[in-house]
Amino acid sequence: MTRDSARNIFVGGTLVVSVIFLVMTYLSHASYPERTHPENLTEEVVWGKHVWEKHACINCHTLLGEGAYYAPELGNVIARRGVEGTRFILETSAKQGWGQTRKMPQFDLSEKDITGLVEFFIWMGNVDTNNWPPNIEG
Amino acid sequence: MKIQYDSQRVAYPFFIAAMVLFGAQILFGLLIGVQYIWPETLFPAIPFNIARMIHINLLVVWLIFGFMGSAYYLLPEEVEGEIYSVKLAYLHCVLFVIGGATAIVGYLFRWHDGREFLEQPTVIKVAIVIVVLMFIYNMIMTMVKGKKTTGVTVVLLIGFLGLAVFYLFAFYKPDNMVVDKYFWWWVVHLWVEGVWELIMAAILAFLLIKLTGVDREVAEKWLYIIVGLTFMTGIIGTGHHYYWIGTPEFWQTWGAWFSAIEVLPFAAMVAFTFKMISKKTREHPNRAAILWTVGAAVLSFLGAGVWGFMHTLPQINYYTHGTQITASHGHLAFFGAYVVICLAMISYATPIIRGVKVSNQKLEIFAFWTMVVSMLFMTFALTGAGILQSYLQRVLAYSYMETQGYMSLFYGLRLFFGVTFMFGLAIYLYDFFTIGRKEKHLN
Description:
heterodimer, A: mainly alpha, Cytochrome Bc1 Complex, Chain D, domain 2, 4 helices, B: mainly alpha, Four Helix Bundle (Hemerythrin (Met), subunit A), 76% helix
């Protein structure tokens, strides 16, 4: 093989896999109405996502397994803790933080923020994740 | 060895910035390691999420400093002509330092966005884009004005163009978290398992040509094979991130097959490196630079290739996804591939820029082994933690915090090797900042 033929394989191969990747991206998007239920993206859910980002929750927790690994998975927190339990944790952390050893810092969360986060977690819990995580502990 | 083109010196401030930020990055890494064991440390002044944000952002910023400095050093020799605008290079170096420092200090005061690794506030993101565009403009103009176009510079340019283009997805923040995650990976995965590998391979090829004296034709053939393998496996290999985040099941098949062969470009880099070394036509006096260069090929193969492959199949990833296994892979992959290639270039270029003869490299070689061995053992500790976590939490369904309690031995080992890594880095930095200070200058 010469340098030029190696270069042509690089260019041609990249084009082929890019086209396949774009087709798969399209197919993924076509599946979202069924897998993610975008019709349930209410103002509260969107606000909850905003609050989630505002406090950089992802840098301690994981969400569908992505994030930091310092605190529990929250994609299924509603299934694990229930709506009331999740709300209680958030209300407590708005006052004094949460936890015994590894602590969640106190965050200034308004009533609207807490409701938004809970609704956001409910929405996340309804995403079809191909049965991940393996059990309720996340 | 004397410097060939005067404008190559512009690489130097980029290297200095990279080294300072590297030191800061490891300090925040140590803080995280301490917080895993003593969570009250600096809490709530610098909570874990802020410290981790800074640890990783510093890494990314200093690596980009390293890449830009490397590019500025190698471009004139490759294209046989001076850098188009040295002033522009200094200007965007200063801008990047200001932007980076503002972001890091801002994080301490909770001024941040909230997507992992992309926490830079929008105005900082815009500044980063401007800096990268200034750099790319300077690079393209240097190539246009130069006498030659080489495979090394073309691949390097594609790498930087890709870096710029895929960063634009950082500005896209849809309401649907699944769509958000989908395109988030276009920045993260297509950077580190795509276009950054082009930058790395181009620097590696340049160093091997210089260090071994082997014919460019051979080196660039290998370079195109490596980057061809990178894209042909890595682009669809993005699928290994799409197993469990709401994306369709077909990604499990495609992601598994393509990411299983993502090890190939790294295997090719190892083969390339040893082939070049075995055919060398000169004995280069800079032994440390050779060590770092070989180290980059071998350690990226281990960290990105082997540790990546370990948990890339969906049958395994189902249990290991989002555990310390990922952290172990992340550490060795980033260190082995990108940190070490930057240090290789810095090791090669710094004595030439300072105009000193390479003489005593004992300290630098000692620092190499200290950092490499520390990082390997830190990776082993995190791997142990991850295996235990996968078993207790994912198989036996222990709760998250209960599982963490059983992992403390591994966290202790990780911190210990983090401290020895810092020791190696301190020696490295001492050596870097004193090279040539004592020796006589050549000119």
